[in-house]
Write a structure and sequence with these properties.
Two copies of one chain form a homodimer.
Chain A lengths: L2 H30 L6 H20 L1 H11 L6 H19 L2 H24 L2 H22 L5 H9 L5 H24 L15 H15 L6 E5 L5 E5 L2 E6 L6 H19 L16 H16 L2 H14 L9 H7 L17 H17 L7 H13 L25 H21 L2 H6 L3 H11 L9 H9 L6 H15 L4
Parallel strand pairs in A: 1-3
Antiparallel strand pairs in A: 2-3
């Protein structure tokens, strides 16, 4: 490929990343500082930017350049990955008719309204016709994109490039089979003695200071990012040097803020350590939603919910909350933040039961897409599986099938990335343990920068040169499986609950 | 013009406003919350957005639509104004060669660096070659845009559509002739007794609360806008429902924050009360920089620096600063915030001497553009005029020719809009006095909403249907002149200083 053509392609790639960052700022601001009544104006600005990005992606000239580049056998690995990644994105965009894109956007917007009303009145029937329409439109979209017989794959690809249902089904079956008896054993055991913090109040300013200290200890660079407050915590990579996270502060439960910060901090480290030379190309971003989630989960659960972490943090915490922490041991905190319980609500679930909530959603949305389940039958199917797998019956659809907003957003193929994140995290964690020679000591010594540096080298700095599974395989030498995650649960919860798992 | 073509034109106008609002958010964030080391990434995003807007403005299809619309005699007044405004903007953009635009951007960026270095070392010679280049490039730009013999007009038009040097010269000469003896008389008179607040400290949190109260009293809608802190206060109209201002808080001088807030609040009210039906068209924006400045000056000086205003505000201020305000009268505050002094620095100047600083800059930059003055002779010319007009000699170039950043930004034709703002403000203020039957009583009664409503109807809500001078003429029945402003100064400062002006 001629240099001048490659330069044009690079320029177009860079412009797309700039516009993507602009969308990032618009959405970050919407959730943090935007005035209460500015929603309509912001929606117009976001729609204009998204239409612009779509216009640039489907531009025939970009197609020509990508075809020419793909035909060039002499591209190095990074350039080949740039062409492959943008080519995949462009193919998806080109294949879906604009009328379908518009119809989906309108149907989503109406479905979210209906979902809110259905929740408020606890009447699934209000939401039902909207969800039926969304399933229909997503099936049409999947057919437009193309697939080898499994529509769900076409949607999954948008969140987890390279992943397929045929890989997920056996993997998730193995996980489910092992998890159900583990939950059974743990919930039958007596709960360990734990700190009952619910009776106390924790001033939010001191919580804030503690979360900033956590970010510093994790090695999150606050000169190239920031933390703010929002109702639903999130991370937004506006640019490799402008990574913004949010946390949620309530006086009642300081751990909500602490673990939100650690979780989003894990996402934030990924965004801050993407390959600097490639940040304005399609190689300079995260490889998948699942791999992104592996970073937040590794930090939140495997580090943040570990005993050495609270041994290390207790003195700082005690300085901020001396009265509340009177006589509280690290062990009591550790037990408090790792309490396993059957709950009908996904976002309140502990790390042992959490994946059961995800597997249920994956199986149900897969059945909807396949046509094996109707939307009308969905609430009953939900409740039945919840009883069978999680061992608890929702009291109504609000804490059942209506609990998540994802389906109202027409997001099918997104939920499994949460569980993939947990599985990838465990694989990385095992390798980290070997390479660092004892993660527990590293954590207790406050040397979390060593963890960050390892992840930055093995995962973050790779960008999207390869798909997620290959990145993890190259970093660890291990294939994707549920075994490391199960070993992690068995060791941690076996010891904590004094049971054999 | 066919409906379908008009709809396309409207859609393109709306998209341009959306993109403009996005640029507004990017720049607002840059000055408020952006992390310290994110500047390069933000610069790339801003450059991409500006290049996009330029691309859309010069798009030949937009040119065709505007020509077709301009040829249609049946457009109503609003539509005709939309076509005229966007047509003028497009003409300017099309006529300037892209190479010149790029060269200007690069030369500006280098000139700002050189200006900072020249200030730090107090050596004009560091800045001189850069300023010479900027003058040369702006002359070339003015020739590209076209003019009737006066290059400055082509630049002025970018800030003050419809205004010409031939109008400004006699107007400013009249003003200067009257101002010099007024300053002479006032500075020769004994200073009135005033509150010496400089010896006290004012906690910034209480200042903040007071500024929010001021915005509420002015009728600035905080559900459709917000205030934050920044080093240099500014207002950013991201959307009619998303108007953001900043203020600057220092413990030493609370009036810096108070008057910044009132000043920016005046700009903010303009942006919040633009014609809602037209906000996504070229009629839904302010008519000129001068008219915008008239709003901030009217609020800051004519209302905020009035005696009834401080009569009204004193109780609220006393609740926040009881110790500092012990025994302080409204009259003492009024005298403190209206102290007239000869100062070499524009941004510290009072409202009597302020315009002399502007007239000096206008005359010098006009002479540079005309070729009547070389950049090498600029510092001496500056000092001579400063001595003659303001009656004070700068101690060096840092408080002389190097004090403002505007020329390093290559901004020529911008300074006169400050004085136009003062003149427009006085014309509006005289009419407001008649229509409201006593502005002083309105202010003292805290009925500032009445002022806002009058301005919203007569100025803000007109948008850019007409150019600034016509808007003011229709609102007041008066032509642009210096007389109302001089009457205002004579009445206010004659009484305050006990002199006949």
């Amino acid at each position: 490929m001629e240099q001048v053509a490659w330069d044009e392609l690079l320029r177009r790639m860079g412009e797309l990343r700039d516009f993507g960052g602009v969308v990032g700022l618009l959405t970050w601001d919407q959730e943090t500082f935007m005035p209460q009544r500015s929603a309509d104006g912001r929606a117009a600005q976001l729609a204009a930017m998204q239409a612009l990005i779509h216009e640039r992606v489907v531009d025939p000239r970009l197609g020509e350049l990508l075809v020419a580049a793909a035909a060039d056998g002499g591209l190095d690995e990074d350039r080949a990955a740039m062409v492959r990644n943008l080519g995949r994105e462009r193919d998806r965009a080109v294949k879906v008719p604009p009328a379908l894109v518009r119809e989906l956007a309108q149907a989503q917007s109406r479905a979210v309204e209906a979902w809110r009303a259905a929740r408020a009145e606890e009447r699934f029937s209000i939401f039902q016709p909207h969800l039926e329409r969304l399933v229909e439109l997503r099936r049409a979209q999947a057919d437009a994109i193309g697939h080898a017989g499994e529509r769900y794959d076409a949607l999954l690809e948008g969140h987890e490039p390279g992943m397929r249902v045929s890989r997920l089904e056996p993997l998730f079956a193995e996980l489910e089979k092992a998890l159900v008896p583990i939950v059974e054993t743990i919930t039958a055991a007596p709960q360990p003695a734990r700190w009952n913090y619910a009776s106390q109040r924790f001033p939010v300013d001191a919580q804030w200071d503690f979360t900033i200290g956590l970010l510093e200890e994790m090695g999150f660079d606050l000169t190239r990012g920031r933390q703010d407050r929002s109702t639903h915590p999130f991370t937004d990579g506006i640019h490799v040097d402008d990574v913004r996270l949010t946390t949620r502060l309530t006086e009642e439960n300081p751990f909500q803020a602490f673990f939100s910060t650690i979780h989003e901090g894990g996402h934030g480290l990924y965004e801050q350590n993407l390959p600097r030379a490639h940040v304005r190309t399609p190689v300079g971003s995260a490889a998948s939603m699942g791999l992104h989630e592996s970073q937040s989960r590794l930090w939140e659960n495997m580090i943040g919910r570990s005993l050495p972490f609270w041994r290390r943090q207790l003195p700082a915490l005690r300085r901020l909350f001396p009265a509340q922490l009177e006589g509280v041991s690290p062990e009591a905190i550790y037990a408090a933040v790792n309490r396993v319980e059957r709950s009908p609500i996904r976002v309140e679930a502990d790390e042992v039961t959490y994946n059961l909530h995800i597997l249920l959603r994956f199986q149900l949305e897969l059945a909807l897409l396949r046509g094996d389940l109707t939307v009308a039958d969905l609430p009953a199917a939900w409740n039945e599986r919840m009883r069978k797998d999680v061992g608890i019956e929702p009291k109504g659809d609000r804490e059942g099938v209506l609990q998540d907003i994802h389906w109202a957003w027409a997001e099918f193929g997104y939920f499994p990335t949460y569980t993939l994140g947990n599985l990838y995290a465990a694989i990385l964690h095992e390798r980290l343990e070997r390479d660092l020679g004892g993660v527990a000591q590293v954590i207790e010594a406050g040397r979390l920068h060593a963890v960050r540096d390892w992840l930055a080298e093995k995962v973050h700095g790779v960008g999207h040169r390869w798909d997620a599974e290959e990145i993890v395989a190259r970093a660890t030498g291990e294939k994707l499986s549920a075994a490391p995650f199960l070993r992690y649960l068995e060791a941690k919860y076996g010891a904590l609950y004094g049971v054999a798992l």
